[in-house]
Amino acid sequence: MKSRIFRLVSLCTAATYGLATAAYAVQDLPGGPAVKQLNLHPPVTRIAQEQHFLHWMMLSICVLIFVGVFAVMFYSIWKHRKSQGAKAANFHESATVEVVWTVIPFIIVILMALPATKVLVAQKDTTNAELTIKVTGYQWKWGYDYLKGPGEGLSFLSTLDSSHRAMSDSGNLSNAPNDYLLRVDNPLVVPVGKKVRIITTANDVIHSFMVPAFGIKQDAIPGFVRDTWFKAEKPGDYYGQCAELCGKEHAYMPIHVKVLEATAYAAWVEQQQKLASAKRDDPTKEWKLDELVARGAKVYAANCAACHQANGKGAGPIKPLDGSALVKGSLTEPMHVLLEGRVNGTMPSWKQLSDVELAAVLTYVKNNWSNHTGEAVQPAQFTAARAGKFPEGGTAAPAAPAAPAPGAAAEPVASVAAQSYQVFFATGQGSLDDQALATVRQAAQQLAAQPNVKIVLSGFVDATGSAQVNAELAKQRAQAVAKALTEAGIAPERLELRKPETITDSAGASDQARRVDILAAQ
Fold it and tell me: Which of 143, 177, 183, 355 could bridge to 382 as Cys pair (CB 3.0-4.6 Å)?
C-alpha cells in the first residue's frame, strides 16, 4: 500500500515538475500574450489607454461599493446579534433613505457613463483617416487591401505560418516558439503615428478582427461593411486573433500587425510595389506543366491544405482531392467550384486569387498524388471563365445549330432514345452535390444542341417510409435538376416533370431509389 502511495506521489511530483518546466519555458511575447497575464494588454493607442482608464475606474468604483455595502451589512449583523440582546426595530418606509439610495447610484452611473460615452464616440469616429485598409475574413485567413493612402493598391493574404500548423498537427510542442500560432506569412504593415481606418467584411461566415493592444474589435460580416480605426503610437509587432467562432480552423486565424517608422514604412511600400510588379503575371502566357505545378504547390499550401490536408485526403466532411472523379474529370466543374464555391460557403469561392494562381492550383491538384492526368490548365481559361465562357460548354448556352440552306434536306435529329442521364442524391437530401451538378451540366451541354427535343425529368423513390414524404422529396430533387438545367442554358419550356416512380425492390439504401433521370424525347 505504501509503495503504491509513494508511486502516486512520485508521478504527481514528476507531472508538476514537467508542467512547471513547460511554464518556465514560455516567455512573454511583446505585443502579444504574456505569461500569467492578469491585466489588459499594454496599450499603444490613445483609445486603448482610455479603455484601460475606464476599466480601472469602474473596477475601483465597484470595489468601493462592494466593500462599503458588505462592511455595513457585516457590521450590522455583528453589532445587532441576538446574543447581545439586540431586538429588531419595527419601522416603515423612510423617504429620506429612498431618496439617498436613488440619487447616489444615479450620480455614480452618470459619472461612469460620461467618460465611457466619450470613448465610445471616439472609437466610432473613422473620419480623416490617413490610411484606409479593407480587411476581409476568409476561412481561415485574412485578406488585406490598401485602398487609400501610402501603399494604395497593395493587396495580399495573411495565413498562419505553415510550420506552426505542422507543429500543432503533430502535437509536439517541445520547441514551440513564443509566437506559437501567431506567426503569419504576410503581416499587416502600417506606419506609426498615422490614423488607420480598417474596413471589415467577410467572404463566407462571420469573423471578428481584434487587436487588444490597439483596443479594437470589429466583426467582419458577409455582405456588410463595418469599420474601426487605430493610431499606433509605438513601433513594434502586435498580435490578435479572430474573435468570432468561424469553423473548425478558428484557432488558426491569427492577426499580426507590424508598426513601422515613417521611413521604414515608405521603404516597405516601395519594396512591395516592386515585388508586386515583378510577380504580376501575364494571363495570356502559355505556361508549361512543371511551371504550373511548382506554382500551384505554393498556392495549395497557403490556401487549401488547411482543409483538404497536404496529402489531399481531406478530413471528416471535407472531400478528398486525391483520386477524386471531380478533379480527374473535365475542367468545367472544378473551375466552377473554385470561382463560385459550394455547399453554402463550406467550400469558399477563391475568385480573389489571380487567374494564374487558380490555373496553377488546379493544375497542381490534377497532377499530384494519384491524379496523374497530365493536364495543364492555362490562366487564359480562367480569364474566359470569369466572363462566363467555361471550357466544354460550362454555363454558357451553346449556340443553336445553323439552319439548313434553302432547298437542302434538314439533317435528321439524332435518336435520343439512348440519351439519358442519371443524377444521384444523398440519402434524405434534395440538393445537388458537386458530382450531381457535373452530370446535369454535361446533360445540358449535349441537349442544348437539340433545341426541338423535349426533356423529361423523372424522379424515383423507394417503397419504405411515408409515401407522401418520399413523393415530396422526389419532387424537390426533380425541381433542383430543372433549376440547374435552366441555369445551364436550357429553356424552361423544354422541361417536363413527371410523377415520381417507385422502386419496390429497394430498401432505401440503393442509389437507384435516390435519383432523377433526365430523358430526351421527341
Answer: 355
